[in-house]
Amino acid sequence: MRVTVWNEYIHERRDDAVRAVYPDGIHTEVASAIRDHLGEGATVVTAVLDDPDQGLGNLDGTDVLVWWGHLGHELVADEAAARVQQRVLDGMGLVVLHSAHLSKSFVRLMGTGCHLRWREADDRELVWTVSPSHPIAEGIPPVFSIPQQEMYGEYFDIPAPDELVFISSFTGGEVFRSGCCFRRGRGRIFYFSPGHETYPVYYQAEVRRVIANAVLWVHGGGQSPLHPDESIESPTGWYE
Amino acid sequence: MRVTVWNEYIHERRDDAVRAVYPDGIHTEVASAIRDHLGEGATVVTAVLDDPDQGLGNLDGTDVLVWWGHLGHELVADEAAARVQQRVLDGMGLVVLHSAHLSKSFVRLMGTGCHLRWREADDRELVWTVSPSHPIAEGIPPVFSIPQQEMYGEYFDIPAPDELVFISSFTGGEVFRSGCCFRRGRGRIFYFSPGHETYPVYYQAEVRRVIANAVLWVHGGGQSPLHPDESIESPTGWYE
Amino acid sequence: MRVTVWNEYIHERRDDAVRAVYPDGIHTEVASAIRDHLGEGATVVTAVLDDPDQGLGNLDGTDVLVWWGHLGHELVADEAAARVQQRVLDGMGLVVLHSAHLSKSFVRLMGTGCHLRWREADDRELVWTVSPSHPIAEGIPPVFSIPQQEMYGEYFDIPAPDELVFISSFTGGEVFRSGCCFRRGRGRIFYFSPGHETYPVYYQAEVRRVIANAVLWVHGGGQSPLHPDESIESPTGWYE
Amino acid sequence: MRVTVWNEYIHERRDDAVRAVYPDGIHTEVASAIRDHLGEGATVVTAVLDDPDQGLGNLDGTDVLVWWGHLGHELVADEAAARVQQRVLDGMGLVVLHSAHLSKSFVRLMGTGCHLRWREADDRELVWTVSPSHPIAEGIPPVFSIPQQEMYGEYFDIPAPDELVFISSFTGGEVFRSGCCFRRGRGRIFYFSPGHETYPVYYQAEVRRVIANAVLWVHGGGQSPLHPDESIESPTGWYE
User: Fold this and answer.
1) Is the distance from CB of C110 to CB of C161 less than 8 angstroms?
2) What domain range is C16 assigned to?
3) Which of A21, B212, C156, C202 lies at a CB distance of 3.0 to 4.6 Å from B37, suitable for a disulfide?
């Protein structure tokens, strides 16, 4: 399995406080979490917005794309976002982290505004499992706490997830569908909200495990491309 | 539309504190909420466990059954619970309130344990809408607060709802899928957790509106019984 | 309820065979079906691609938009398609008919390719109800037959519908999810595949009833716009 | 992974025509299909109704139970059916084959009648994939044909599946949701309709692959039992 962890990599270079938490960039820490859990099972590389082709030149060689973005959503080329969308529909897995709910590719794949309630805060977030039989919940306790987090709350303007795995609460009393599975075309998508540039969320064991589980889930299985003579949106013979 | 509000009617007769809140029984107040909103649109009657046939002698004449129970779940006859289940499968609407998550009929219709996390408490409950296009959310603000409530929390051991309308949070940080729609056979079910015998929850405007909306939703529409010569689980001719 | 039936209105003007079936345009017949069923309950107008603003100048005054298109998908302005999408997210109902599965607005709302298997044919289509409690199935028999139809088959590249109401089979043995409900933002969408320009499908009683039911369903209920001080994607105070 | 293939084993002993197809019983052939695909990955045993404890004495040592039944549904003890249900809720996977849609355990887990339209016939069944990204569809073509089959048709009286993987059509024009995923408690269930005692369906490569995929899917992942001090339906401390 070939995994690419993509990061806009802007906060960490501009802001001392963020750099103090993620000196090598959020992508490096997320990639490390995946390697720790999947070991030989995955080849993990990183890519950033400033790379050639905005780091998206090898989508065809990517089985799972993990995406972190925030300030740079508009800097991603429309054409690149469209390619990511198409690759997901063709079977690539996509893990969308935190503020990437407004990334161009995710918004295109959802078809909705993807807005949410928001407050910059020092809230405690509790993450509750509501689908205990789901592979993404494997090894995760019924509830875990993230001591400091930005608040993301409902209404989260997404289609109803195909499978809802986690719901979070915040000190302010808000709730949020924080772990959401979607199937689109031949691909799978997992959105996971925990993770903020100024808090060490991606060092937390439960969060790392969820991300690794999600990489496995968005990758696994699924049908081979349709056989040429079964191609869609074209005349088809009578099946016999 | 003929609505029956059923209540075991035990707490209110045993316990002064409960009777102080619901002197005529929870069923009376819930029925009043439905009448206030639906007016001429519904004929609302009440029934209690001590009635002849445990108050369930006229299920065939009932379009929507609203159920409140807690201490008396085991007192309801298995045969009666089976009849309620069958009537739902045949098209009767069912609104299940608060502690009726463990009522025999609901447990049979869900097929799961229907357990949940629980704490007797004075928590503030916030109820958040997560399906703003749903008829049961009509007229309900994006969030409303119930000042005092018992805590019901995840994991709530139900099948994933066909439509999830509300998620609640509690002072303790717990979350709960508090408004859940299910379709079973030709019938519809809505589970709504707010409401406790010692707090005046059923006097609150938003709660009353949700219950009335739910009565409309579980009732509305749906297919007539299958035509006799289309009966299921029997040989069927070739359709031409 | 203000309903607009939109049609590209190209086939009927170009092709004698189509004009013979729909002399006043498909939109006129679909509008008539809705008026027949909803009577005073709806004000139904029609609009076509050649109208000013491509017939989409009054979306704000439209509660439900019914869309028929095929040859002219690419002629609809991107800006107009984006406005339709946004109006749905803001609460307008949308009924998408037959070949409009590839209309720009629907594709944007789905986020997928919306392709399907296809054969120009004289197949008999059988439409089976798989959600008998759904309002869109009200008054519809367990199965009905359309004597002549173009074949639309799986795989239909859409997100899993929030509610699946009808599945069709064709003489060739293909199957198709032919009646699909989606909730997006504050709006609702119903896709219904029966209906082809060269067959008199829109004169058939069951099809007319389904379309009228769908108009009611996509319109009904739902939450008022969020209160200004509850606006999404902006800082929000602590809720108390 | 410890897999038990359970069969009532009645048809094959009573009826020469069935024995000619499955001389060692359907269970033996289904077990062979699973072994062929999973190899060392699974320990597969068989059990039949006439075994001690009706073949259900070692549920605690079973990770995945595959169930075939038809004539003997009523012979299975209520207590045994309840134990199967509970084990699923506790995390055991369950694969339900063909006429086991009316097995006591499945009916209890669904909460509905589980009836379906039916015709003893020599229909050709076409099985279409409608969720190409699903692990159970891995390696399965977009459509495959079963030359001779009994007809099972809609309306199939089950809850809407959590994931719908296959839809079948029959020569008679009927359709059927033939591959259905359900999550219940900590367990997963897959219902797969192809397979009849008088046709050699379980020798067909695609069917064998689907069953093996299903065994993997119902088994995989999921959360460990709740920690004792997190036990459900009991007072819970404030989470900090």
Assistant:
1) no
2) 2-111+178-225
3) B212
Identify the CA nearest to C160 among candidates C99, C111, C226, C222. Answer: C111
- List the single residue in A129, A133, A227 with the smallest CB-CB distance to D188: A133
pLDDT in tens, C17-70: 999 999 999 999 999 999 999 999 999 999 999 999 999 999 999 999 999 999
Annotate A1-38 with b (16+ C-beta within 10 A) or e (fewer).
bebbbbbbbbbbeeeeebeebbeebbbbbbbbbbbebb
Which residue positions in chain B have pLDDT lower than 50?
A: 227-229, 231-235, 237-240
- Work out the minimum CA distance from A153 to partner chain B, whole angstroms: 9
Count the domains in chain A. Answer: 1
* Mutation target among C167, C168, C171 for the D interface, most CBs of D within 10 A: C167
Pick from D134, C189, D156, D62: which is nearest to A188 by CA? Answer: D134
- Using a CB-CB cut-off of 8 Å, the residues of chain C touching B213 are 221
Whether B55 is covered by a domain: the verdict is: yes
Non-local (6+) Cβ contacts of D133 within 8 A are A91, A183, A184, A185, A186, A187, A188, A221, A222, A223
The DSSP bridge pattern shows strands A64-68 and A2-7 to be parallel
Please tell me whether residue C100 adopts helix, strand or coil conformation. helix
Instruction: Give the one of C155, C171, C175 whose C-beta lies nearest to D175's C-beta.
Output: C175
CA B137/CA B190 separation, integer angstroms: 12
Q: What is the pTM of this model?
A: 0.94
Residue D235 belongs to a domain: no
* Beta carbon pairs, A and C, within 8 Å: 87
Burial profile C159-184: b = 16 or more Cβ within 10 angstroms, e = fewer: bbbbbbbbbbbbbbbbbbbbbbbbbb
Q: Does residue D209 sit within a domain?
A: yes
User: Residue B220 has what pLDDT?
Assistant: 72
Alpha carbons B217 and B190: distance in angstroms, whole number: 8
For residue B129, the chain A residues in CB contact (below 8 A) are 154-155
**Interface ipTM > 0.90:** yes
At B88, which CATH number? Answer: 3.40.50.880
Residue A236: inside a domain, yes or no? no
Residue C232 has pLDDT above 70, yes or no: no
Contact B133 C224 (CB under 8 A): no
Looking at every residue in chain B, the average pLDDT score rounds to 91
